[in-house]
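not sure who needs this but someone in the group chat was asking about histidine kinase from Planktothrix paucivesiculata PCC 9631 so here u go. i didnt clean anything up, its just raw.
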Amino acid sequence: MAWDIGSKRDAINPQFRSLSWRLLLSYLGVMMAISGTSMIAVYEFFSFSLYQQLDRQLLTLADAATHSFSEVKEHKKASKMDDFRGLDDDGDLDIPWQNIQQPSQGIEWFDPDRQLIAKAGKIFPPIDLSHYHRTYTINNQKIRTLTLQINRSSESQSEIIGYVRISESTESIQMVLKKLRLGMMLGGILVSGLTAFGGMWLTKQSLNPIEKSFEKLKQFTADASHELRNPLAGIRACVEVIQSHPERINPADIDKLKAIASGVNQMTSLVEDLLLLARQDQDDLPLTTNWVMIPLNELLEDLVEFLSPQAEEKEVQLILYMPTDVKIKGEGNQLWRLFLNLIENAIYYTDTGGKVIVYLEQQEKSVWVRIEDTGIGISLEQLPFVFDRLWRADQARNRRKGGSGLGLAIAQTLAQNHQGEITVTSQLGKGSCFSVRFPTPSHT
């Protein structure tokens, strides 16, 4: 069965687009992490400074209220009231704390038994004198308190004569911090936008020389591969002509000619592989619009029949399981090359007496082809690199005679060209499974 090659396609190479996005996202991630960390540090420092300033104010007021303890206590006795006296700050008591007290503050005096003597102001949280500093939350309002112990010292000992507690609402601090958060958020949005634009410009500037070098390398690979085809064809023709007249060949040179022919064939295969990959890099493979419906079951059946002598020579069972009729949209020669590479690879790395099984399965939205073998397998460390060009795992898979090291890379390229994907699972010493998924014709 013949598989025709279609015309060329015109698509955008996604390699540098993907790389530029990765670089841009990495740059943005680093910059956002630095900016975010800096903003958090500034916010925490500013918040700490505000609360520290508040605590100093509370301490100043507490010192003043401490010096007024005797006057407050005498004032209560003079009032002849059993309950505590509320000071209304009208100036009846000439005490220093009245000059520095704020409307958002509250002052409380307690006796040695922690019983309330008097209070002034409007902020009075629940009584708890066990903490020097404490923050209460009452009706969604935070209140900061500072408690001082009042001592009377003598030559022999120090006696506790009472306590004073200063309370103040942190509403003003919360408003300042809220404005700071809003400013940081707006600033963060602005910085993010500027960083994004700057990152895009820097990424483009960074990738331009790399992209130009890569394009030159691709062009060189394509040109070199193309230019090598004619000399190799000439060498092969000369060798074939010489081999067609064995009577003229010195017996000592027969093996040398065979080695030359083998080397030329290997070099020709490598050049063709490089040329195919170069065409893919330059988006020069057949247009998808010119693809036709390919009976994949027939293609695999022909391919298994084609490779059966190779499997029999190595005493490897080559088995095919498939439905009767499975079609996908694609290009025949590319699909033939894709599965030829995978099945040949499986046969080569399967020991004598082993099996290579090809499964074809059709699902609702996809078509799967799996090539399983009982070969030497691939180590877990090497699995991420199996589709790299010229990949070879020294301890697991030595490059086979006549192989170019490009077979799996070409298989992946051709699968992606058909909007498919290829994956591999493997266990060292037990075998590998290469799975190729294609979209069904109705989902392409």
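also The CA atoms of residues 338 and 411 lie 5 Å apart. if thats useful
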